[in-house]
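user: Please supply your own:

assistant:
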Amino acid sequence: MISVTSDDRRNLVLVGMMGSGKTEVGRRCAQQLDRPFLDTDALVEVVSGRTVRELFLTVGEGAFRGMESAAVQDALASPVPVVISCGGGAVLDASNRKALRRGGFVVWLRASPSELGRRVEAVGLTERPLLSTAAASGSHPLDAIKRLAEIREDAYKASAHTTVETEGRTLDEVTDQVLALFAEPT
C-alpha cells in the first residue's frame, strides 16, 4: 500500500481515450492505495441493467451521456476516497469537468491515436459503440479514434491536473508515475 503524503481525502480520477489504460491503471492504483475502484461505465451498466453498447443502440448517445454524468456525480459523492476511471467521453460535459477537478486529482492518460487503435483492436472493437458505428458506416475505426481524440483533446486538457503519457510504457510504469504525481503536495 502506498502512503499518500498529500490530502488523503481526495479522489484519484483517470480520464482519457478508450485504450489509454484507465481501467487497468485505475485498478492497480486502487489496490496500492487500498481504496475502492469505480468505473463510470460500469456504474451506468449496473444502474441501467444494460451494457454501454446496448444503451447507445437503444436510447442513443445523448441519453447515455446523461446517465454517465449521473455516474460521475455518484462516484464523486463516495463517502470514502476512491479511484475513478471515467468513460472516455465524460469530459465532454463542462459540468463533469468542473466536478471532477473539484472532487479529485485528475490525471489524463494519453497515447497517440495509432497506439490507442492498436490497443483497442487487440481487445476487439465490437464493444466500443463509437467504433462499431464507424465501422458499420464504412469508416475505418482508426479514423474514428483520430477524430475523437482531436475533438476531445481540449476537454481532456481542461479537466486534468496533469498528464501521463502511456505509449511505450508498461502498466506498472504508468501506475507508478500516476501514484507519484498523486502523492505530490498540492
Summary: The chain has nine helices and five strands. Strands lie at 11-15, 37-39, 83-85, 104-110, 162-165. Residues 91 and 155 are 6 Å apart (CA to CA).
